[in-house]
Write a structure and sequence with these properties.
Largest sheet: 2 strands, antiparallel
Length: 165
């Protein structure tokens, strides 16, 4: 029987390294499925915007925001789909540890680019609907909410958990 390892924390698991890697990769794939759908819908919507008649009438600042948003969305798409391509290349080459480590980094990068893309899309729409000044304020609020939910809350939870262990 292979050696058993502990993963740490209050809910310790008695699992082998291979079992832990399989579980970690499975959990990561579930998370990526959620993020992939959102980023693909956003990316598709952004691709169509440039072909509308109203697009020719946007300001240079709006055009710059659109370009940054489109690029961030495309890189987020690449990062969030990247673990699938990586898995296909290393499949059956005993590299699950590399797969989990690299897929984690791609997912984190993808979420960062997705944050930029969502904020850019919100800015573009709100600027058209409300005007420049209110759009900046509301977009800053949206960015703050995303940062708090995606970064601050998880890090605070992790820090609280690590300090109690």
């Amino acid at each position: 029987m292979p050696p058993r390892t502990r993963s740490g924390g209050a809910d310790e698991r008695n699992e082998t390294e291979a079992e832990r890697l399989d579980r970690n990769y499975g959990e990561l794939l579930q998370e990526l499925r959620v993020a992939q759908v959102g980023v693909q819908i956003l990316f598709a919507a952004l691709l169509t915007v440039a072909f509308t008649p109203q697009f020719r009438e946007i300001t240079s600042l709006q055009r710059g925001t659109y370009v940054v948003t489109l690029l961030a969305s495309s890189v987020a798409t690449a990062c969030l789909i990247g673990p699938v391509a990586f898995h296909r290349v290393v499949f059956r080459h005993s590299q699950k540890d590399d797969l989990v480590r690299v897929a984690h980094r791609m997912a984190v990068a993808g979420m960062g680019f997705l944050l930029v893309a969502v904020v850019g899309a919100v800015l573009l729409i709100l600027e058209e609907v409300l005007g420049q000044t209110p759009a900046y304020w509301y977009t800053a609020a949206v960015a703050l909410v995303i940062i708090v939910l995606w970064v601050v809350v998880p890090l605070a939870s992790r820090t609280r958990r690590e300090s109690s262990d």
